[in-house]
Amino acid sequence: MTSSEVQIRPDRLKTLLDGINKFGFNRQTGGYNRVGFSDMDIAVRSWFREQMKESGLDVSVDAAGNLFGRLGTSGKPCVMIGSHLDTVPEGGAFDGALGAAIGLECVRSLKDHGIEPDFPVVAVATSEEEGRFGGMLGSQTISGQLAPGWVEMASDADGVSLVEAMAAQGYSADTLREAAWPNGSIRAFLELHIEQGPVLESEQLSIGIVESISGVLVLGVSLEGTANHSGTTPMPLRADAFAGLAEVGVAIPTIIKDIGTDQSRVTIGKVDLSPNFPHTIPGRADFTIIIRDTSAEVMATLRSHIEASITDAAARNSLKASIEERSYLPPESLDGSVRQVLLEETKRLGYSHTVMPSGAGHDAQTMQAFCPSGLVFVPSRNGISHAPEEWTDWTDIEKGAQVMLNAVLRLSKGD
Ligand SMILES: [Zn+2]
To answer: What average pLDDT is seen over the chain?
Structure first.
């Protein structure tokens, strides 16, 4: 049987995705709420686990809440396919859920056709990818990449610690590190995800095969000046923290133009001014700067130029500047041979496609540091994600799912 004869079942896939999205739906906003380790996240996991069981798979759950549904006997390295089930608050119907559903659909298709893979195939639904506690908890657990001391320190925006949130749902954070898979136990990891950007749609392409994923550097910056009366303090005598922040903001596009690439992204996304009162000169500005690029060298150069612009802006405005690194996820090139398989299968199926970078982080990026990994994008309407308006056409979803199934068939064959 050639792989092109084994087809996914779009109707069954759609039913599965709709089933996932019964959990956490907000009628008022149209958004989906399955934030990591919330009640809805736990509820969808237990439902998805039942779906895996009913599909006749060998099902297990690890310390992070990752779900595994295995087809084929263990003892040999597996091909793992899936994505995450958690969402951001008021997220969309496809981010994560689609990839998790396609993972299970691929394994169901193999079963339908009575295929016994030479290497086991494991459908996975990872946990806490979206970042309530920082993100990628599930894939970091599988791949043994939890940073030392991080588990004990992690907390969400409301100050709830990871340890507490996990305990409230019956999980023990103490055992996370023991859940790492042994080296060599995964021969390939595959993920399908929505693009979350406008490229595929604008070029009218169905499939994006991801070559590299941008790194993410988060800096926390404070500019400290003097709060004072906005009427009585002459302009030259001010130490206005917002004026310094504004100069940094203005410098960013020029820095990117001079030394960045078309993959460079720099964002000031969160700003706290204090006292934050209309009649008072801001005495303090605390803000984040997030730097992304697909090259570690470019990220480092961007960082040094941005830090210099902060120092200059502080000097010009009589401010004291401090800069701290909050987190750094390095850029990752995905495995060339897995990418080749995805590309060949896409071409064989005759689907329009491109090879592209990813500006957003994904489980496949984390997994690549542990095992050969591949990532496939399908188009996002208007490039929108993390919002109720998130949408991907079913014709593209079917194509994406079929590419994944063909890749699973190829990668699970052999001695
Ligand atoms: Zn996602």
So the answer is: 96
The arithmetic mean of pLDDT across residues 284-294, rounded, is: 96
Whole-angstrom Cα distance, residue 84 to residue 42? Answer: 13
Task: Tell how strand 78-84 and strand 186-194 pair up.
Answer: parallel
pLDDT at 148 over 90: no
Give the C-alpha distances (Å, rounded to integers) separating 246 from 88, 159, 241, 287.
29, 29, 9, 11
CA-based nearest residue to 324, from 218, 214, 216: 218
pLDDT exceeds cutoff 70 at 2: no
Class of the CATH-defined domain 3-214+331-411: alpha beta
The whole-angstrom separation of Cα 282 and Cα 309 is 20
What pLDDT, on a 0 to 100 scale, did the predictor assign at position 4? 52
Å from CA of 6 to ligand 1 middle? 27
Span from the CA of 85 to the centroid of ligand 1 (angstroms): 9
Q: Which of 143, 14, 61 is nearest to 401 (CA)?
A: 14
Q: What is the whole-number distance in angstroms between the Cα of residue 182 and the centre of ligand 1? A: 25
Distance in Å, CA 86 to ligand 1 centroid:
8
Residue 284 has pLDDT above 70, yes or no: yes
Give domain 215-329's CATH architecture: 2-Layer Sandwich (3.30)
Mean pLDDT of 176-189: 97
36 CA from centroid of ligand 1 (Å): 12
Cα(385) to centroid of ligand 1, in Å? Answer: 9
In the chain, domain spans: 3-214+331-411, 215-329
Of 319, 318, 261, the C-alpha closest to 287 is 319
Domains 3-214+331-411 and 215-329 agree in fold:
no
Distance 317 CA to ligand 1 centre (A): 41
Please give all residues whose CB falls under 5 A of ion ligand 1, grouped by chain where several chains appear.
Answer: 95-96
Query: Has residue 1 got a pLDDT over 50?
Result: no
- Say if CB 107 and CB 123 are below 8 A apart: yes
